[in-house]
Design a protein that fits this description.
Layout (H helix, E strand, L loop, with lengths): L2 E6 L7 H9 L4 E4 L8 E5 L2 E5 L12 E4 L4 E2 L1 H13 L9 E4 L3 E2 L2 H10 L15 H10 L14 H19 L10 H15 L3 E2 L1 H10 L4 E4 L25 H6 L6 E9 L2 E3 L12 H10 L11 E3 L1 E2 H11 L3 E5 L9 E10 L2 E3 L6 H6 L1 E8 L16 H14 L3 E5 L7 E3 L6 H4 L1
Parallel strand pairs: 1-10, 1-11, 2-5, 2-10, 5-7, 6-8, 7-9, 11-15, 14-16, 15-19
Antiparallel strand pairs: 3-4, 12-13, 16-17, 16-18, 19-20
The structure holds inosinic acid.
Length: 438
């Protein structure tokens, strides 16, 4: 079973890119299987900082083939921009190093327009989408009539398809907006632009399901890189304040075509506290000076949208739920250094709802909105830990915090991160390095 998955156990931005980067050495493939350019991952290599949105973090490791599977919604302009930016920094991607599934659904100009119009239509709080056209593209995928997959762009009827859908979308968007708010889309111009995207992307287009199933049968090591976090999962997250794909562990098989029986290890990535971008309930949110402390020290501003992130204490009810949902067998505890300097740290260990105590994560968002978090307070530590290289050199209070999290979530802590750099990573479970040594 040569597959390893890295998934976020909160509301995204858990620093998964860093863990993917750590585990990439020795893998044959690194795979992005859901989401799109709504994700943002930062990888720091020495003094170089790389910000990626669609390309898997594995592009920075020579010898690894990066794969974007059919579960992803592809913004062709964005992926080409990332390929060009890497080229400008001497990282050349060719068809051997990057494979993009012909099954990916393509984001088109009407998806951006629809994202703008529809974001506020949940009836209450806005979802606060990233405005990258993600939800509208997934909706067209499921509805089928107006969908375009990457493979369709190489078929003789592509131009006719664009014309037909543009005409329909112009009518829909005109009906959804006030007069003068929406400029009708020009089918001819869209066709010209997307035909050029298709030409440039052609060397990368492949049947990635076949490639990955064959890789699994040959026992090649494959790393699956989740985007967003489990609590933003469209089926299992805080619906409707979620993204439009299966961003929890359940999404690996449907997004990539690789069944769960090939997955050997699932790593759950967790911040030492919680953050959320966009709307929706957030029980442990600290909209106060404590939250600002976390935001400042953790530089909690969106990689993609630059929005300030909402910050709060670690919510173990939510993390435990996400870990169980994903079949997680090891935790990566990130940004532990951000907590230095706090006298005490709060862990939410249970919720109270209607006077009842529970550790079950509510299935309805309005119940989650009503919960009162029950906190356990643990001592903090004053010293900076961003230079600490080994687990034993962490302060005793940090050990106690990590031990308590492992106990409450029911999973060991395999990795501790104390800063953004590769060298600021403490690998507790040495077997994670196994494929690199093989
Ligand atoms: P969408 O994915 O753009 O439709 O946005 C839906 C919700 O998911 C919004 O609350 C976004 O802020 C959130 N979201 C989407 N991608 C990410 C991410 O990579 N990190 C954190 N939040 C995200």
């Amino acid at each position: 079973m040569p597959g390893t998955c890295v998934i976020g156990l909160q509301w995204g931005d858990e620093a998964k890119g860093k863990i993917v980067d750590l585990l990439t050495a020795g893998r044959r493939y690194v795979v992005r299987y859901q989401g799109g350019a709504n994700a943002g991952h930062t990888v720091v290599v020495g003094k170089e900082v790389y910000k990626l949105s669609l390309l898997p973090s594995g592009v920075l490791a020579p010898g690894v083939t990066c794969v974007i599977t059919g579960g992803v919604v592809l913004n062709p302009a964005k992926v080409l921009e990332e390929i060009d930016e890497l080229l400008a920094r001497d990282i050349r991607l060719d068809g051997d190093r990057l494979k993009i599934s012909d099954r990916t659904h393509v984001i088109l100009p009407w998806h951006f327009a629809e994202d703008r119009v529809l974001d506020t239509s949940t009836g209450g709080e806005s979802i606060g989408t990233t405005q990258r056209g993600i939800g509208p593209c997934y909706r067209d995928k499921v509805a089928r009539s107006y969908a375009i997959r990457l493979g369709d762009m190489y078929r003789p009827d592509f131009k006719e398809r664009i014309a037909r859908i543009t005409e329909a979308k112009n009518r829909v968007l005109a009906a959804m907006t006030n007069e003068g708010e929406f400029e009708p889309l020009d089918a001819e111009a869209i066709y010209e632009q997307y035909a050029e995207f298709a030409r440039r992307l052609e060397p990368f287009v492949a049947d990635t399901t076949e490639i990955l199933l064959t890789a699994m049968e040959k026992d090649e090591h494959v790393l699956f890189e989740g985007a967003q976090g489990s609590l933003l999962d469209v089926d299992h997250g805080t619906y409707p304040y979620v993204t439009s794909s299966n961003s929890s562990g359940v999404g690996v098989a449907n997004g990539s075509g690789v069944p769960g029986c090939h997955i050997e290890k699932v790593l759950g990535v967790v911040k030492a506290y919680s953050t959320r971008v966009g709307g929706g309930p957030f029980p442990t949110e600290q909209d106060n000076e404590k939250g600002q402390y976390l935001r400042d020290r953790g530089n909690e501003y969106g990689t993609v949208t630059k929005r300030p992130r909402r910050c709060g204490w670690l919510d173990v009810v939510a993390v435990r739920y996400a870990a169980r949902l994903g079949g997680v067998d090891g935790l990566c505890l990130m940004l532990l250094d951000v907590l230095s300097g706090l006298d005490e740290i709060q862990i939410c260990t249970a919720y109270e709802i209607d006077g009842r105590r529970t550790n079950v994560f509510p299935s309805h968002v309005e119940d989650l909105r009503r919960v009162k978090p029950i906190y356990e307070s643990v001592p903090g530590w004053s010293e900076e830990i961003d230079q600490v290289q080994s687990y034993s050199d962490l302060p005793a209070a940090a050990h106690a915090y990590l031990d308590r999290i492992a106990e409450l979530v029911g999973c060991p802590v395999d990795v501790v991160s104390v800063g953004p750099g590769r060298e600021q990573t403490i690998v507790v479970n040495e077997s994670l390095r196994k494929p690199a040594l093989a």
